[in-house]
Each structure stands twice: as C-alpha cells, then as structure tokens.
Amino acid sequence: MSITEERPQRADARRNREAIVSAARQVFARHGREAQMDDVARRAKVGVGTVYRHFPTKEALLAGLAEDRFRQLAEHAQEALAIEDRWDAFETFLQRWASLQASDRALSQVLAESPNLMCVAACERDDLTAAMRTLVTRAQAAGVLRADVRAMDVPMIMCGLAREGGPPGASWERMLAIVLDGLRAAASNVALPD
Amino acid sequence: MSITEERPQRADARRNREAIVSAARQVFARHGREAQMDDVARRAKVGVGTVYRHFPTKEALLAGLAEDRFRQLAEHAQEALAIEDRWDAFETFLQRWASLQASDRALSQVLAESPNLMCVAACERDDLTAAMRTLVTRAQAAGVLRADVRAMDVPMIMCGLAREGGPPGASWERMLAIVLDGLRAAASNVALPD
DNA sequence: GACCATACGGAATTGACGTTCCGCTTGTCA
DNA sequence: TGACAAGCGGAACGTCAATTCCGTATGGTC
C-alpha cells in the first residue's frame, strides 16, 4: 500500500497545481459545477492539458475540492465541541456550515443534488460524523435540543439551506433562524414523523 | 393584441400535443430537467420533430409544465383559505406544496436551482401571491404564526424542502415538521434577522 | 376521391464540453 | 552548459443532447 512513493515534483509543477486548485475553488464557487475546465485553466493561467495532468477528470477535481470542504466542516465541528454552552455549540456549528455553503455554490449544488453523497462523505470522515453525533446528544442531554432529532437529520437540514440567488430579501440567515427555532426543545413541539 | 387568432388545429395535432404534455410530465417528474427531448418523444410515441412543432424549445416545454404546477399551487392555496382554523390552513398549504414537490423532481430542481424563478412565477400568478399573503397574515392575526415571517419567506422555505434521494430515513416530512415548529409563534422564538 | 395545407418522423446538423495527443519548453542534475 | 526527463499549451477529437430540415403522410374540404 505504501507503493505510492512520493517522487519529488518539479517546482513549476507544484506551483501550477496550487494555481489550479485555487482557480478551481474560485470558479466552482462562483459558477457551480457547471463551470468549465477551460475556465479553470484560463483563471490558473495554464493550458487545459496541465489541468488534466494534475487531475485526471473534472470529477476528480471536484472531489478534491469537496474533500477540502468536508475537512473544513470537520474542523468547525471540532471547534464547536469546545464551546461550553451546549445549545451555543450546536448553533454555532450549523451557522458555520451554512455560511460555508453560502460562499460556495458548488458545495450547495453537490449537497442539494445528492444529499446522500453527503452520507458517503460523512462516512469517510467519521470524525465529522462523530462530532455531529456528540453535538446533538450533548445538546439533547442538556434539554435544549428537541429529543427527536437524529444526528443524520443535520446534514439533511443543511442541504435545504444556503440556496443561491433566492428572492430579494430571502437570506439563508432567516431560514436558518427559523429552523433553529424548530430544533429548540419546546413544549409546543409536534413529534417528528418516522 | 388579439391577433393571436386561434385557428382550429387538426385533430391529430391536438391529440399529439396532449400526449406530449402527458409524457413530458412523467419523464421530467421522474428524471428531472436532465431528461431528454428524445425520451419525451419516445414516451409520447411521436417523433422529436413533433415535440418541437408544439414547443419551440425544451425550455418552453418545461415552462409549460411549471405553469401547470403553479396553477395547482394556487388552487391548493385557495382551498386552504377555506379552512376554519388558521394554523391548520397555513400548515395544510405547506404540506400540499411539499408533497407536490416531492412528486415532481423537475419542480424541486427548478425551485432549488433558481428560487427567484419562483418569484417571477409568483408575480404572474398574483392569485397565488395574494392567497399566500392572506394565509400568513390571518395566521399571524390569530397569534399562531410568528409575527416576523413574511409571505415571501414561504416560497423560500419551500425551496429548501423535498430534496430527492436524501440519506436513508431523511424525509421531507421530518424537515417540514421541524420548520413548522420553527414557524409557530412561541415564547422561545429568536427574532429573525433582516 | 382528389387536393393541399397541416402535421409528422427521424436522420442530419450544430454547438458545447470533457478529454486526449503530441510537438515544444523548461527545470534539474552532472 | 548540455542532456533529458518532466511538464506544458492548446489544437483536435469524440460524445452527447438540443434543434433543424425536408421528404412523406394525413385530416379536412370540395
């Protein structure tokens, strides 16, 4: 398995790869997965061939970026875990997640189009899953989060947020605030189906 | 402007048009906007050319179907207006809307990808807009709906629902239940931003 | 039943993109 | 500084799906 020897790359190659990743981040964040490989290449000031030398397919490039995002998510979850107040911890995590999505159209699209990709990703990053689970159960134990939400409801909820280009005045902040109120433990809560 | 004289169509043309619309409904509902014109033609037992005789572009065909859906939405809103209990009226409308979306992948996609198309559509159907507004203000007057939601939050909310192919056990019903609890007037509500 | 405008079918065209290929360039190392 | 592998650019290619075109078929009308 350790046959994947890291042969030293040429300096320009390393530089280009970085430029490509950075360009891809921008382009896909702005235009979503519709963005074209040529756009990425142009922004990176590189030929398309070079992009393909570093990432065998568009899918691979997107996957690389997605992986980054999930890593970030996992970090945010970790940080939230350190927050004393349990509701606050939970809320902060959702807030960060939402704002991450709001800033990256490709991410929202991926999540919106196939939320179960989220599941796959989550499985591969069990640090993320574990952290979410802890955030949820802790908040529930403290009686601040309704008892009938499940950790895996969280990704589902987030999929529905941060839709780009909504009607004027429609912001994910409002939507999130509503959802958070729905998640808070309250006497008026109606039991969730299923 | 009344130059749009309705010349009587040939019988087979009328029959075909109907077949095309019906086929399109099925195909787009199942496969979303990715579905191909050839699929529509095949299911309608008609050549592609015929599809294009009736609808100049794929976009036009989709728009026709969307219009239908919005008409249905408006009807549902009308019916909800007749419900005595004001919370019930509001909830019923959202429920129907969500289930409509759940049954039509193309509809969800359209709403998810460009919620502001929703706005345009809503403007053209001011019966829908008006009904939504009434449902909201009535429920607020009765003190059962939080006072800081706006009528136009409703479409935004619905855009986030009915995502197809979610993680196992993730249903729009759960999501809707959470949102509804968040919309209910309650002492624990945190004021919405904006 | 003959005529012809209307309508049809589906092969061909077009355009958009992802991906490949190959001759040229440039780091790296002796 | 010269050799050469690693890396590059971007034109060319292949595919896939929307759209067009045109020869043929058919409903309506006399």
Keywords:
homodimer; 194 residues; DNA-binding
Protein architecture, described:
The structure is a homodimer of 194-residue chains. By secondary structure, chain A is mostly helical. Chain A is 68% helix and 0% strand. The radius of gyration of chain A is 19 Å and the shape is elongated. The N and C termini of chain A lie far apart (43 Å). Chain A binds chain B through residues 112, 114-116, 118-119, 146, 149-150, 152-153, 155-157, 159-161, 163, 165-171, 173-175, 177-184, 186, 188-194, and chain B through 112, 114-116, 118-119, 146, 149-150, 152-153, 155-157, 159-161, 163, 165-171, 173-175, 177-184, 186, 188-194. Chain A binds a DNA duplex (30 and 30 nucleotides) through residues 9-13, 16, 36-38, 41, 46-50, 52-53, 56-58.
Give the SSE layout.
The structure is a homodimer of 194-residue chains.
Chain A: H1 11-31, H2 37-44, H3 48-54, H4 58-81, H5 86-102, H6 105-113, H7 115-124, H8 126-141, H9 153-159, H10 172-183
Helix pairs in contact in A: 1-2, 4-5, 4-8, 5-8, 5-10, 6-7
The first copy, chain A, binds a DNA duplex (30 and 30 nucleotides) through helix 1, helix 2 and helix 3.
